[in-house]
Structure formats: C-alpha cells, structure tokens
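User: Look at the shape:
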Amino acid sequence: MHAGCCKRGWWWQDYGSRCVLRPRMRNARSGRAGEGMSRGTGGSMQPEEQWRFPLPGKLLPISSLGQNGLLQALVQGAEQPVGAELSEELRRAQEEWEAVEEIQSGLGVTLASAAAPISFSEALQFFQTADLSECRKKVQATVRRQGLAALLHYFFGPPRLQPQLQGERDLALAMAQCGLDDNEQVHMRILQTIYRKLTHSRLGCPRYGVHWEELGFQGVDPGTDLRGTGMLGLMQLLYFVMDTRTLPLALEIFKLSQHETQNFPFCLMSVNITRLVIQALREECLSRECNRRQQVIAVLNDLYAATFLQLYRLWKWQNKTIADSSFVLQELEFSTKKKPKQLLKYLEAYMNQRPVACGLQHLSLPSTSIGSSQASEEIAFMGICDPRVELEGEARLI
C-alpha cells in the first residue's frame, strides 16, 4: 500500500481507472491523520479506501497543477465521468490550492498576481508615458529670486539648463509631485522591489505593516514619508538597489543603519537625500553637469548615490548617531549645492575601486565654508514636507 501527498492536507485515492484527490482523514480518537484507509467492523480494510500514488513510483508535480489548472490535472486520463462527489472534491481542492498560494506570496493575493521585480528603466518608461498633467501643474522648475539675489545669480550664478534638457528636468520634478498610488501596479512593483532587494526576500510583503519601519520608514505606510519627493524618492531608491554598481554600497549603508548605536532610518534618510538633490536641481547647481552630459535624471541619480556615499563615510568613520542627523544633513546640503562635481568624483572613484576610494574616510568637506547664519539653522530630519532653503528670496522646495 502506498500513499502520496499532493499538497497540504490532500491525498490521491485510486478508483481503478481514475484517481481522485481527497482530503486526508483524521482519527477521531487520537487526533492524528489516518493511515488513508477505513476499516469495517472486523477491522478489515475496505479495498476502495486504499490510498496510493496516481502512478507507481511517481508523484504528480505541484507545479503542473498550478500551471495547467487543477481540474485539468485531475481529470486528465480519466476514462469515466466523475460524479457530484468528485466535483465537490475538486471545488474544495481548488480552494485549498488558492489558500496555499496566498500563504506563499505573503501578500494576500495569488502568486499569479504577485508582481515581478521591476527595473529602473522599465519604471522610468512608465512615467515617461503616464499622464502626469496634474503633477506638472505643481512644478516650479527653478527657485524664485528677487532683488539683489536675482541680479547676482544672473551675472555670477551657474549656467542655465539647455532647452533640450528642460523636458527631462520637468519630468523629474513631476515625479516628485506624484504620490504613491495603491491602485497603480507599477508603483506597487517599485515598492515591492525595494523591499525584496534590501531584505533578500524572494517573496513580497503586505502593503502596510511594521516591516516598513524595519526598513527605515516612519510608520506602517511608506507613502506618508514621500511628501516633497513623491515617487522620485522611491525611483532613486529603486535605482540605488537595482544598479549592480551601487547595490553593494546600498546594502552596506543599510547594514550600517541597523547598527546597535549608529543606527538611523535608512529609507527616511534616502528621502531626505532625494530632497537635497531636488533642491540642487531647482537652484540650477547641477545645470553645468547636466549640460555636459546631456542628461538630467542620470545626473540626479549619480548625485543621489554620491551623497549617500558621503553620508556613509561621515556616519561610519566619524561615529555619528541619530542625534547628529541634522548636522550631517547640513553638510550634505552644502556639498550637493556647492561641490556636486567633487561628490561625483568620489562616487566614480568608489565605482572604479581606485586607491582614493579606500581613503575616502580621511577626506572631509570644509564645514567652515558654510556661513555662520546657515550653520545655525538645522535641517529637520523627520519633517520633510517643507524644508527650509538657505538662499535669499522665496526659494522653497516644491
């Protein structure tokens, strides 16, 4: 007598020319699963209640049930019609199969609808074709300057962004105005990909839950931390974890964020860095580099990664803690606005594993260059909705 388990709680039963999937019996007295047989009054086993494999020595793969459909797998090769009892068994088996898929996915949905990881280029193509008209209405491409500040910027400020690049700049700023939408599949795929990359999980996770706090968001809903950066904040984090060159750095920083004493909220810090990058873009601090490379979003992503690298260097080698976050963000803001080219050079050295990359911890940006009035103001680490900007006039983050 043979018995084979097809899936949790279900067994194949042989009826001569056909096999039926039936629930495994439980012994009422002992509470244990039965041996796949029923006994008569004399203790003899009824032939029709014997359980065994559908084919001698072979199991029907579970994958074939999921791919071909449970009904097709069960009735394939049957020579006689199946009665009402079999139909009921099939219905129950289908419900059991769907329950197993929900457990495996961890998302409360079937594996068929569990989204595959998404690349940065695929996500960017989505935003390039999506209707962002409402978001574009909120975009203020550059900061407003008045009086002497406007005059000085005109004569001595950085060059303006070339006209052919302004569309790409506006797209980036429109993404920063686009909120996380639960009904948009691409948004959810971006969120799930970030989770899976940082946790090395092959499965997804629920949309809401404390697992997001473990990644460094402030609460159970990551969307509440994206004010001021919108989907651009998630897009830059997606780039960070999906690019093979920057993934090791992202994982190393994430590991540091879990340190016993030097811990910090990783994803919230990422959003703050995106906010600094947006400020530098709107204040035209990146125009020269964008014009040179004839790219905007790629420059933003590289500056984001370079700023994160700078944060990692400062945080790790200067033994920073969460109490130092405002001062660290001040220094990062100064770097992104005044020395973006130097940050990008550090990133290039890190990527190329040049000797200078090994000595980055010994390099420091001159914090004394920051004006005393600027140094006296703190950048709110947790409040990222309306951060202050250190320029005259009405310079504000979008």
Q: What stands out?
A: The mean pLDDT is 73. The chain has 18 helices and three strands.
